[in-house]
């Protein structure tokens, strides 16, 4: 008797809170091992538009769960949806769906299809939040999705080889997404956007993915702020895109010959501002980039701070701090179509007689030896030997091999305050 | 033998050149760390000094010292002493005092300002380099009787290890750049103790740049424990081999 009253009271409380959270008219359907409705599929089946399906704690092995009506699927204390390494776990085939608070694990794997933990099919206004996705092929897959919110999810996979694992958050032909506060580990690409526009990517952490922490192609007018990309196999690669805004991000510890803090390939009309590049083999590698403004960034302890290929033009590099990098700038040609202004270079050895904070002689960030290493990488082993220092000094006096025009005419004497 | 070493060390430490060397090292190391607010950059500036000055002073000082003490050596030989013991105490005396000078001059400053693995490697390479160049100078001075030629040979040897060798390696690198030569480059560096210590420190300071493709090869070799042991073994060979050959020659030398 007492127990049933207790249960009723509890149920009432939950009913009230859930009812307040959703629309007052909408119903709530409870799913759980101890309840009348034992399976999520049945729960979704009887739910009407706008209803909430509340799922109790527990392990659910239901194969592919298809959400084909606008409902809220909410997990209490993180119920586990297990795909048994066979199925796509949640398929969203309706607008206005919310998936909140689940552990989604062990989706199927396939070389033919892109099987995901949670996948949105050509829909809009979907919210996916506070889920933990473990050991899935693709994590969250957005296919032609519009105005969706992906927030607070933790994705982790244990991929061994690139072809055996999919991307963490994968978006194809979508628009106006918000991807915020997620953490992605061990996937192929952490966040991958293709043909995705007007999207905000904020406060995510992409760490230790096999290939790129962030990867986008043909994804115009997107903004990336306050993200951290660290220790990914090949850093961050962004390609064939214009109007990208990257601000306040951290790019860290991307080590390897073809690993970059950011690889900019065919990027134009973009801003890279207030970012921090720390201990990458190459902090920024630019190929075919034009009209990119690199401003107020900190480059600290990288192998190469900037590698600018001759195919880049009209890029502005200004007011950055270059601290403790092995090489500041490297290039593969004597053609210079980019401008360097008012940066702080810790290797600058000039003077400032009029005390206006700007060095009186220009700084040439490309050293002779960086040109030699660019052409013969093994020559790196002689770096910092007396002979090499001598070569660099001579070249600084009388530039012969290094591009004469590649210089910062107004180098700052003190680090730029950011 | 202990007595001889004690006498030689006392004699060397009293010399003005030795005191000046210690003070110069101290002043340079101290000012390098005082100017740079970042200890990593301080280490970097110090690196060139150590790779440059320490071998130079070690080789020239020891060569001159041995030539100057030729009469003392003759006196010792006339005593009932083994020639091996005489020569080895010369070596030990020079090594000990030069290492001590380095420790006092740079070692303490490094330990104070750069208490890290990089600092320790630097300290170790400084001491090992001192010993290597004492051994090399012994070899030069036992083979050449004439003092002027002997000192000339010492300077040439230093020039070779400090500069010419790198130029040769760079030349080979550029000549054979079409071939996969990374591994041979690693083997080549082992032939020069100065390069060996430089690469060991380089792998710590410029680790990001050294992680490039070829860099990874260097790191796989020198960065691993076995690579470090091999590098140490190479350095010890650089001390042991010249010391051994010169001792053998001294044994049968007509003084």
How confident is the prediction overall: mean pLDDT of chain A? 90
Q: What CATH architecture label of the domain at 26-204 in chain A applies?
A: 3 Solenoid
What structural class do helix, strand and pairing data of chain A support? mainly beta
Strand content of chain B: under 5%
Using only C-alpha atoms, the radius of gyration of chain A works out to 26 Å
| Record field, number of beta strands of chain A | 38
Most strands sheet of chain A: 25 strands, parallel
Q: Low-confidence runs of chain B (pLDDT<50, min 5 residues)?
A: none
Largest interface: A-B, 31 and 40 residues
What structural category characterises the helix and strand content of chain B?
mainly alpha
| β-sheet strand percentage of chain A | 35-45%
Count of folded domains of chain B: 1
Percent helix of chain A, as a range, is: 10-25%
Low-confidence stretches of chain A: none
- First-residue to last-residue Cα separation of chain B: 20 Å
Count up the helices of chain B.
12
Oligomer: heterodimer
Which geometry of chain A do the CA atoms define?
elongated
Instruction: Fill in the CATH topology of the domain at 26-204 in chain A.
Output: Pectate Lyase C-like
Cα end-to-end separation of chain A: 67 Å
Major β-sheet of chain B, in short?
A: none
